[in-house]
Amino acid sequence: MNGYAMSAQDVVTLVQRLDAHGVDACVGGGWAVDALLGEQTREHSDLDLWVPAAHLERLFVAFAEAGVDRICPWPGDRPWNFVLHNGVRLRVDLHLYEPLEDGSLHYGSVVTGGSIPADALAGHGSIAGTAVRCESAEWAVRCHTGYPARDVDHHDVPLLCHRFGIPVPEGFEPLQGRSPSSPA
Predict the structure, then answer these.
(1) Phi, psi (5° rounding) for residue 147?
(2) How far apart are CA 167 and CA 170, in angstroms?
(3) Phi and psi at residue 97, to the nearest 5°
(4) Model confidence over 16-73: pLDDT tens digits?
(5) Which DSSP symbol is given to 53?
(6) How far is the CA of 140 from the CAs of 101, 137, 157, in angstroms?
(7) Are strands 81-85 and 114-116 parallel, antiparallel or unpaired?
């Protein structure tokens, strides 16, 4: 385990804290995959969260109470996508969006952003037996295939595709005899 490995209980605690503060958080990334599958299938170094930009102040209050109050600069960070951490092991990759009048969601800047369908964040799953809202299976597959694939992507994508009857994208055959080596 690396210094940022997050347990399922860490995730549940953070999501419940956000809910108590009225933050409409949606689990994304690798934890969304495991939530959709209903079991933890690998280690995760962070928790990806989709949050309405209007809830950011409440999110900061909730996370400050949990000690997740440090910005962790990463290459490519933007005002709508950045990482917070607690200086020890809890790391949260935030993805801020704004609901649009047509029901879709805007993610990114006015110049380089775009809209995503609202149902992309309408999945339901469970982490450590706790129900959570998460990315839909189709959106999770799409989000895991928009860049050069890592071992964790070769792990996650086939699992989702097989469980939800989604065609496996070319080049995403399951890991054979290898375990995901870089938690995400």
Answers:
(1) -160, 170
(2) 9
(3) -135, 165
(4) 999 999 999 999 999 999 999 999 999 999 999 999 999 999 999 999 999 999 987 7
(5) G
(6) 24, 5, 8
(7) unpaired
CB 105 within 8 A of CB 119: no
Q: Can you say whether the dihedral through the CA atoms of 160, 37, 29, 116 is positive or negative? A: positive
Confidence of residue 5 (pLDDT cuts 50, 70, 90): confident
* Helix, strand or coil, per DSSP, at residue 169: coil
pTM: 0.90
- Per the DSSP assignment, residues forming a β-bridge with 96 are 51
Domains defined for the chain, CATH in brackets: 8-136 (3.30.460.40)
Write the single-letter amino acid at 175: L
Structure tokens at 23: 């933050």
